[in-house]
Amino acid sequence: MSDTYIIEVSSEPAGIVVRDKAGFRFFAASNRFNPLEGRLFRSVREAERVARELLRGKRKPATAIA
User: Fold this and answer.
1) Where are the domains of the chain?
2) Looking at residue 55, what is its pLDDT?
3) I need a labelling partner for 6 at 20 to 30 A (CA). Which of 13, 17, 36, 66 fits?
């Protein structure tokens, strides 16, 4: 199982998530995803979902863990 995953939203690089003891830490690839920078997620899918919703303007990034 990999420890690093690339997240793309609508063919746009959003960032990478890196496995952490507590979950997956997000590192933004562009300014559009800076609100998620350093956030911790329970899963890669959760990080991808929140990034997608952030891009669509549907969600504020406060849904991440801690």
Assistant:
1) 4-63
2) 87
3) 66
Residue type, 64: A
The Cα 45–Cα 60 span in angstroms is 17
Cα distance between residue 20 and residue 24, in whole Å = 5
Place of tokens 């991440």: 64
pTM, two decimal places:
0.82
Which tokens hold the place of 23? Answer: 């979950």
Count of beta carbons in the 10 Å neighbourhood of residue 10: 8
SS (H, E, C) the chain: CCCEEEEEECCEEEEEEEEECCEEEEEECCHHHHHHCCCEECCHHHHHHHHHHHHHCCCCHHHCEC
